[in-house]
Structures are given as structure tokens and as C-alpha cells.
Amino acid sequence: MRAGIIGTGSAVPKRVLTNADFEKMVDTSDEWIVTRTGIRERRIAEAGEATSDYATIACQRAIEAAGIGAEDIDQVICATVTPDMMFPSTASIIQDRLGAAHAGAFDLSAACSGFLYAVSVASALVEVGRAKYVVVVAADLLSRITDYTDRSTCVLFGDGAGAVVVGAVPEGRGFLAFDLGSDGSGGKFLYQPAGGSRIPASHESVEAKQHFLKMEGQETFKFAVRAMGASTEKVLEKSGLTRDDIDLLVPHQANIRIIDAAAKRFGVPSEKVAVTIHKYGNTSASSIPIALDEAVREGRVKAGDALIMVGFGGGLTWGAAAVRL
Ligand code: ACO
Fold it and tell me: Chain-centre distance of CA 220, in angstroms?
């Protein structure tokens, strides 16, 4: 039996932060941000809101699209690096709010690659018969760990959540191949230093701004282009698909130049690439399922279409999945 995606959903905050807003906050310009990243605006959660608020809505939409009930769900997996709190898990909070009374729940940490890791686990649970329906939600409020005085990072990120329901699908459809990888030696290029067991929260850690995301942009960029290319090659080979079979490439939305480089390398025309970065920025793990959900709801993809989803992120990690909807 094969597992596949049987419903999608997403949710983003209403509040918009434009490049013009950043021109008033830091030494930057709309022109710099657009040409270097492709970002025009991003969505930012209100004070007092948390990751689970958006994740729960995304899950509800995915569950509705799948045509099942919350009580049918066996597992909730939440991929996030900005949980509501260290524990309980954000997945447990979501499970309760969904009313998924028969579901287990856990968080998974693989930064921007988290969605791909989580759907890989979910599909395995379904295919070995350990679960009938698994809800995978990737959700991050990166605004909570962004230093809005650091122009080299603050313009890049936005908040959001995307979800899918993974369940059994008819023969010939579903997940065809996965590729997941990690190079922990690159952890220093993208990380949040404090708040864990190495540097617990203290007055000093707050003053030293160690609770904010730190990034070496150029190192991350080089890694991203390399990893996205290699990972896509691998899932293509494993799945038996050819480039011409791809109906939609759904890449992690970190920088339009990274997306364009990946699409060019594979000879995939721009009309077959899902792009949301101009309106949402980099929403971390949620960027792939948000782009997927929008493509589904806009009718850009339909049952039977072949998709490649590919991403990279902190860890450093990367991942790709080939799926026939
Ligand atoms: N506005 C104006 N100037 C800026 C800004 C800004 N917002 N940010 C940086 N600059 C300046 C720099 O200070 C530098 O000035 P200098 O030459 O005087 O030193 C100049 O612009 C060029 O900076 P670079 O870092 O070389 O610019 P680059 O073209 O590499 O673009 C960027 C930077 C957009 C960050 C790019 O490197 C990138 O996208 N990297 C990948 C980021 C990424 O994918 N992150 C993934 C995160 S995934 C996750 O897990 C959250």
C-alpha cells in the first residue's frame, strides 16, 4: 500500500510588513531586497499569538480537504523551530485544539527541511500500517527569533503554517521517493545560540542577542544551491520520473535566486515552479506546504500530477520528495 497526500491546508497572519516598512526600520531599500531576494512583503503574527494558532487552522483546512474527521487521526507531527514553548510539544497543543482524541503527537526539528522530514515519517507510518491518517504540519513564527535591527536577516523572514493529511492512496499515486540529508558541520552557518541546554536563558544571553537567529548568508546560499540540486537529482533517479514528467516543482522559498538556479539546473520552466516568496518571504518549514496548498487551491495541480518538493535549512539539513498527487 502506498501513502500519499489526501488534503492540504495553510494559514498566514493578516498583518503585512512591506519592504517600505523596512526602509523605516533599518538601512535598506526596496530595490536591494527585491533584486537580492525576490521578497516584496511578508506576514507577521500579532503579539501574543503563537505557532500553534496558525498551525491549528492549517490542520483544520487540510483535514476538511481530506474529508475526514479529527477523531480519525492517528498521529500529529509538527515540524517547527519556533514551538509555542520548549514543552509540551506544539503538536500536543494542536492535537488538543483539533479534538484529535485518538492521536499521538510530537514535534520534529529539522529547521526549513522539517516538512520533508515529517512527511517522510508520516508516509512510513501509513505504509507499515501503524497509522491510517497522519496530519503533518510545518509551522514557524520566525519573527519571534528575528533581530529587527540586523538588516542582513530581518528582511528575509515571515510567519506561517502549512499542513497535509497523509493517508493511503490508490495504486500509481502517492510518495514515490524521498531523499533526506544532514551535514552537522555546517550548523554554525544558521542557528539560534541560546535557549537550549548549552546556553540557557539568562540576562547575559538576552543582552548578547543570543536568542536571535544567526546566519552566514553567503555560506547558506552556496550550500542551498548545491543541496537542492543534488537532492532533486536523487529523488528523480529513485522515483523513476524524468524531468519532463514534473508537473510542478515546489522548492523551499528562501531566495528567488536560489529557486531560479534550481529550476534552471533542471530545465523546469518557470510556469512549473511554485513561487510565493514575493508575498510571504521565507516562512521556514512552512514554505513548501503553503506553496503546495496554494497550488492545489488555485487548480495549478490536480490528482495524478507529479511533484518534486525540495528544501534545505538549519542543521544543515536538506530533503526532497517525489509525489504523485
Ligand atoms: N539592505 C541593504 N544592504 C544589505 C542588506 C539589506 N537588507 N543586507 C545586507 N546588505 C549588504 C551587506 O552588508 C553587504 O554590504 P558590503 O558589501 O558593504 O559588506 C552587501 O549588502 C552584500 O551582502 P551579501 O551578504 O554579499 O549579499 P548577498 O547577495 O549574498 O545576499 C542574502 C544576502 C540575501 C542573505 C543571501 O546571501 C541569501 O539569500 N542567503 C541564503 C539565505 C537562506 O537561504 N537562508 C535560509 C534560511 S533557512 C532556515 O532554516 C531559516
Answer: 16
Residues 36 and 200: their CA atoms lie apart, in Å, by 35
What grid cell was written down for 243? 524531468
Site of grid cell 515546489: 250
What's the gap in Å between 159 CA and the centre of ligand 1?
19
CA angle 39, 305, 71 (to 5 degrees): 85
Positive or negative CA dihedral for 302, 303, 304, 307? positive
Dig out the grid coordinates for 222 from the structure: 552556496
Q: For the chain, which domains are there?
A: 2-171 (3.40.47.10), 175-324 (3.40.47.10)
Residue 279 CB–ligand 1 contact under 6 Å: no
Which positions are catalytic? Answer: 112, 252, 282
pTM over 0.90: yes
Beta strands in 200-247 (DSSP E): 214-215
Over residues 53-67, the pLDDT tens digits come to 999 999 999 999 999
Mark out the alpha helices in 40-166 (DSSP H runs).
51-66, 90-98, 114-127, 151-154
User: Strands 190-191 and 214-215, how do they pair?
Assistant: antiparallel
Peptide linkage before 180 cis (omega within 30 of 0): no
Per the CB < 8 A criterion, the answer to whether 122 and 75 are in contact is yes
Q: What is the pLDDT of residues 75-92, one digit of tens each?
A: 999 999 999 999 999 999
Task: Indicate if ligand 1 lies below 6 Å from the C-beta of 314.
Answer: yes
CA of 207 to the centre of ligand 1 (A): 24
Radius of gyration in angstroms for the set of CA atoms belonging to the chain, rounded to a whole number: 19
Cell numbers for 212, please give them: 536571535
Q: Which of left, alpha, beta for 157 (phi over 0: left; psi -120 to 50: alpha)? A: beta
- The amino acid that residue 166 corresponds to is V
Give Cα separations from 208 to 142, 147, 193, 237, 325 (angstroms): 19, 11, 10, 46, 47
How remote is the C-alpha of 285 from its chain's centroid? 2
Strand-pairing partners, residue 43, are 16
Bridge-based pairing of strands 41-43 and 16-18 is antiparallel
